[in-house]
Amino acid sequence: MPRLLYLTQSGPTLPSVRFRVLPMVAKAAEAGISADWRKIPGGVLARLPFYLRLPRSEVIVLQKKLVESWELLCIRSRCEHLAFDFDDALWTSHPNTPPSPAREAREKKAWRRLKLVCGRVDLVIAGNAYLAEHVREFSRQLTVLPTPLDTGTYVPGSPRTVDGPLTVGWMGTSCNLFFLPEVLAGLSPLAERIKLRLVSDEIYAGPAPLPVDSVLWSPETEVAELQGFDIGLMPLTDDAYTRGKCGFKLLQYMATGAVPVASDVGFNREIVRHGENGLLVREPGDWARHVVALAEDPAMRARLSAAARKTVVDRFSLDKTAKKLWTALGLDV
User: Fold this and answer.
1) Which percentage of the chain shows pLDDT scores above 90?
2) Residue 46, C-beta contacts closer than 8 angstroms, at least 6 positions apart
3) Angstrom distance (rounded) from CA 253 to CA 227
4) What pLDDT digit, counting tens, does each position of 32-42 carry?
5) Parallel, antiparallel, or unpaired for β 35-39 and 57-63?
6) Which of 19, 44, 161, 286 is the most exposed place for a label (fewest CB within 10 A)?
């Protein structure tokens, strides 16, 4: 039987599956731990036979899916130990969702489900301390495990720009294009000094007061796109949803040598040490000020880039995180 089995709410393209599940399954195999993963069916009628066919496992990790009580009983019957892993504020909504009775009802339901799941599993794995604090009082056992990155794959590319326009980049899912208009407005005075590149699963169609090179993301070109950024942007509003984010976009930028310029919000400030491995934005004018400072000081840019890469290798590498996970799950090898 598998020693470790992940159950996910989505397929392999979802970031939480791509970076919190699939790499761990691969690392488990390298460590001699038999491991696999399954996607939970969307239809309720398909779930009971799915659960009944699950292989018995030493540990099952339910990744991010807020299931009902009967589903927990089914899953529990197929394993010795059950864990729940999450890396988003599942009880709230994306800030681009307007307030409404329907949103309020969804959030109340999600909060009830989150309390149910965290209270019934043996271990809760939270992506950051903010998420952990929200579920601490009703969790039996709790650990914080940031999303890791394979620093052997996400590496710097060719030497960075010294002369000429800097490439200022943003990469993310299309729902987060919502955060860009204010940033683009702030960078508009720099239209002659920078090249702005946006990489997402949708072409950017919002306000653009300066030229924008918007391209579609693909897994085959992801690393090369990141390696082309001199500066990586991570704008966020400040709310419950964004405080729950785990800063993965920053880790991708930093591992590939781009200097992060990020909103001073939530986990961003735990990754970026202002002036040491990146720059934090505390007011709208900082976007342009920080980009100008980096453009005018190649030595500072190189120093921050090297420190950014070192931060990810030292604190968020896949190898180190996998070892912490095996310990937390009782799968020491």
Assistant:
1) 90
2) none
3) 8
4) 999 999 999 98
5) unpaired
6) 44
